[in-house]
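check these tokens.
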Amino acid sequence: MIHYNQSTIQNWERFYRANLLQCITGFKSANLIGTINAEGVPNVAIFSSVVHLGSNPALVGYINRPIAAAPHTLANIEATGVYTINHVTTEFTDKAHQTSAKYALNVNEFDATGLTMEFIEGIKAPFVKESNIQYAVQLVEIVPIRHNQTFLVIGSITDIILKTITPASDGFIAIEKAGSMACLGADAYYTGQLIQRYRYAKPNEPTQSILQNIC
């Protein structure tokens, strides 16, 4: 058994500490957030912190790093109020990861990383054409997290685009069939495999599976 205390954790080398702490919080979805600034320069950046916040209304959030470390996505969202979230798939993991590089403000990161912009009428922010699951988001609120100068960005989902997959009768989407990836740490990407689904849990009733004979 290995036991690290808070003092040890705090004294780790920066990248070692960040990688380990991002690993212990588990697998996360790999998403590209597409934005555009007031001057019309598109931006795309990878995020592993997108989280479901509610279904009615349909809200999602993500954590933006401190402005000094990651200024462009947040500034663009503040300027336009709209952004897109695009699942990363196995076909373009390398290009998606490259968006984590710190490009200059005037650089179109779609062009710089080899990704393709896709626009839908009525939505100002660009989508990632290579992505099979995409959704557009309208800014609702930016919540400063003062303890570490990060921001919780909350948005309302306005449009959903599914290119290669159809939801089941109950709304379930088997995202692994669309090639959607998970990520771990700062630089590792994983494919998903469905193990089991269960029916809605109720007190004093046995757990019931929806799928049978899952290998």
